[in-house]
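User: For my dataset I need records formatted as: sequence, then structure tokens, nothing else. Please produce one.
Assistant:
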Amino acid sequence: MNANLEKLENNLFKLSVEIDADVASQEYNKACKKMGENLSIPGFRKGKTPRPIIEKHLGTDRIKQRALDAMLPAIFADVISEHQLDLVTEPVVETYEFELGKPVSLTAKIEVKPEVELSGYKGQTIEVPEYKLDESAVEKELESIRGKFATMEQVIDRPTEPEDIVFIDFYGKMEGEPIKGGAGKNHQLDLANSHFIAGFAEQLAGKNIGDEFKIRVTFPQDYSDKAIAGKEAEFDIKINEIKKKVFPEINDEFAQKIGPFQTVEDLKKDLAQYIEQARDHENRSRAEKAIVDKVVNESKLDIPDTMINREAKYLMEEVENRFKNQGVSWEQVIEQQGQESIWNNLREEATKRVKTSLVLGSIAKQENITLSEEDFAAMVRDLTQSYNTSESKIYEQMTQNPSLAQGLSQQIMSQKIINYLLENNEVKYIEDTST
């Protein structure tokens, strides 16, 4: 076998291969025999069909392709190993000439990862805005829990108040035309925690059951539906029902009801511990993001469009499936946001992902950070606890869906690299001025 590797661009190579005629013929014969074993042709026993009959039935091109599929993995592996290529995807055969009795010639395109010029990923001081706990954090968390146990009580003797729950009919119009999706019957709306357009819920306070009235609101400039973004709309409203929240008293009985606590003080201690753990987790996350952002932003590399577009396409499929799982029409999303706008946003995110992956991968190679069997086993043990299942079931799922194992491996490797960065740089927490 003769192989020649020619560099075309920064990350593209052309591989030209010539395979000996004898080797190609042997592989062709093996492929023909193997494929003939499954043929059922009248007059011949399975596995005993003569070669000319197999060729006539299957076609020589199909057999040649099977022979090539058998030869190429070893050929590609030798070339990749010899030239120490770091591939992005599997090599793609572009042309081949396969005539029995003659050497087989083929060309393939090999896409490799671009070279990364790392800069200062060790021995740096990283400033991280520190997340601090509010002095009333425990009380706020306690109030949040209390709110989850609130009940609703019907109101009949007063107008609506800003903390009430109302049940309304509403019908929206813009420039005299109905707003798509802008109507509802007996819709439940929490006036204090409304996800409606700003100003909608506030105009419902001070109204009585049975009141019918109009309100005006302006859709925000960045609203998802560009056709109505920034425009004023009018809504016809009818108040059908008013309810108020009734909160339980915070006492020892309440504490015993929500968990293994004897007193409110026991509950507060548990909440304090939980909040402190959440604070530590948040600060750790901030430190990880800050150090990765710094290292990635300061590294230099030329990312080919093919890699960005491939990742953007994957993200597009991911987003589309997410909307479909939520019962939202993907065609409607495209109509509202625009195909080009969605694609450009995803390309921007794809660029960040690809660059981060390449930089972290380069650090792993430079520092010989690898994934061990114990790393993988430890993650599986963690998953068994998180999902209350067994290790055998997790491994079974990975066998059925290899992409799960691949995703888990990437997750473990990324975390090992980030841990390395944290261990080899100093994190200095500073005051968070963004809040």
